[in-house]
Design a protein that fits this description.
alpha/beta; 11 strands
Amino acid sequence: MSNGNILLVWGDNRDRRALYKALATTGAGVSFANDPSQLRAGLEQCRLVVMDYDAVRDTAREVLQHLSLQPSPPPVLVVTSSNHKADLIELFGHAALTNLVAKNADFNLNELIITAQKVIRNDIFGLDKYLSWGVQAYQYNITSSAGRFGPMKDLESYLHAIGANRRLAALAHSVADELLMNAIYNAPADPQGNPKYASRSRTEQVELLPDETVSFSFACDGQYLGLCVADRFGRLETDTVRNYLRKCFLQGENQIDTKDGGAGLGLYYIFQSLNHFIINVARGKRTELIGLMDISGSFKDFAQRTKSLHLFIAGGRQQ
């Protein structure tokens, strides 16, 4: 095993060769782990771990458990075709998990390449990374809770103009509104880090200060509709996201609470309503939430696809 920036732990040799070629396009070295000694050595050196959860599940669990105990582990990307609740509860329980890539029947290597590039280059922000080159995004600055209505109406008109399925269009509208409400009410904090508006009812109007404005953009490349909302605070933690999602999947007595300032159910709703949910954070500076919906087919096609989650922290390794 040669030294490399990306450690690939994969079961199928043919797929592994294809993945090697794809990941090598990032300019990073790619190493394989074929036995425990290679795996231990690789984990000490790599900047990104990529694992086939379906084929090497026991090994993947051991790696996730090991890295979750480390103070600053490398990001771990897990590829799986499973959408079983038990698997998601287990995976979201590992603090080392940063990227969950859906492996559907038409598994697309582009998502893997984009993720690896963002980690290796420490260039995490931007909706444009996920859409075809040249697509024009519509961009807005939101200065109040009421200020979201105009852009939301524009999104509705845009979806109608491009012929989006009505159920998908309605879902996209609802997700965009939830993203904006989270950024407006939950993100702003005072200099001591205390939430400013989170305890307010969402029916109560909020006027944002100039340094609290929220950015909103959307675009479509014919297959994916991209929604992007960013705040200027960078307060969302990756552990918080995983814990919220895990608790919501557990349900019952472990269901997440709805106390003031809680955004758990909103994040769960967003995750369940998208094909790809991307969270980019520069702590104390910026949180960017990106949602991708495949609108090229029917609502049934959309709903049956396994979902991806990506958590990126500026600087690479998790803290």
